[in-house]
TrEMBL record:
<keyword id="KW-0067">ATP-binding</keyword>
<protein>
    <submittedName>
        <fullName>Phospholipid/cholesterol/gamma-HCH transport system ATP-binding protein</fullName>
    </submittedName>
</protein>
<keyword id="KW-0813">Transport</keyword>
<dbReference type="Pfam" id="PF00005">
    <property type="entry name" value="ABC_tran"/>
</dbReference>
<keyword id="KW-0547">Nucleotide-binding</keyword>
<dbReference type="InterPro" id="IPR017871">
    <property type="entry name" value="ABC_transporter-like_CS"/>
</dbReference>
<dbReference type="GO" id="GO:0016887">
    <property type="term" value="F:ATP hydrolysis activity"/>
</dbReference>
<dbReference type="InterPro" id="IPR027417">
    <property type="entry name" value="P-loop_NTPase"/>
</dbReference>
<dbReference type="InterPro" id="IPR003439">
    <property type="entry name" value="ABC_transporter-like_ATP-bd"/>
</dbReference>
<dbReference type="InterPro" id="IPR003593">
    <property type="entry name" value="AAA+_ATPase"/>
</dbReference>
<dbReference type="GO" id="GO:0005524">
    <property type="term" value="F:ATP binding"/>
</dbReference>
<feature type="domain" description="ABC transporter">
    <location>
        <begin position="2"/>
        <end position="233"/>
    </location>
</feature>
Amino acid sequence: MLSVRGLSKTFGPKRVLDGVDLDLATGESLVVIGGSGTGKSVLLRCILGLETPDAGEILWRDRPLAEGRAEFMDEFGMLFQNAALFDSLPVWRNVAFRLLRQMPKARARDIAVEKLARVGLGPEVADLYPAELSGGMRKRAGLARAIAADPRVIFFDEPTTGLDPIRAATINELIRGIVDETGATAITITHDMSSVRAIADRVALLDRGRLRWQGTVAQMDTAQDDYLRDFIAGRARPMARGPALDLAPDPTLGRE
Ligand SMILES: Nc1ncnc2c1ncn2[C@@H]1O[C@H](COP(=O)(O)OP(=O)(O)OP(=O)(O)O)[C@@H](O)[C@H]1O
């Protein structure tokens, strides 16, 4: 359904994506993992058309995505990192944002309330403003917005960032439930291994702009790849260079 072929992207002297190939079947849930700065967001932005790749192509239903972008945009939903709700709009208008262009207000509101219920938020939340919600509720509202127009492909950008482990588990379960129920194709980018285990049919590890490893969660647990094993276990990599107290280590350090 969605294929990425030889995708490369450079910013100045920095090659961020270096020939990435990915294939997603209809209804499949792919989780892309990788350390900070390995190109996960740039990959997502290229698929969404927010960055122009230097080389390679993205195919949507076997056609170049660039040719069918309008159709693609009608069929995609996205949960943004930090939910990205409009502060000046009540929750229901955030959820119904796209629907309001397609149908009467009362119908759009009904669908928004229905989608809020699907993510565990009662009708009383519909008229609140985002500032009145907790972080977990904002995430849920963002999820309701992502599924409001019944998308066929959904992107989840760091869905559990900023949530405690219990709320993160709830969001992961909601995502998996929604993907199963709707049969939507899903791409999630995350560092959170609990999301990987809850959401993924298949896992892809990006490393320095390349797809280093991909497989199922079961294959991931027995894979021999050193970097993948350290990533799963949350083990520090030896620092090959750089300051001893670098709190944001260069992801390229310490790898063969
Ligand atoms: N518009 C841009 N201009 C210049 N450099 C950029 C731009 N966007 C991304 N980069 C660089 O590309 C690299 C990859 O960034 P990206 O945001 O994709 O990383 P990531 O894997 O999503 O990291 P994180 O997990 O921390 O969000 C980084 O070094 C970043 O500084």
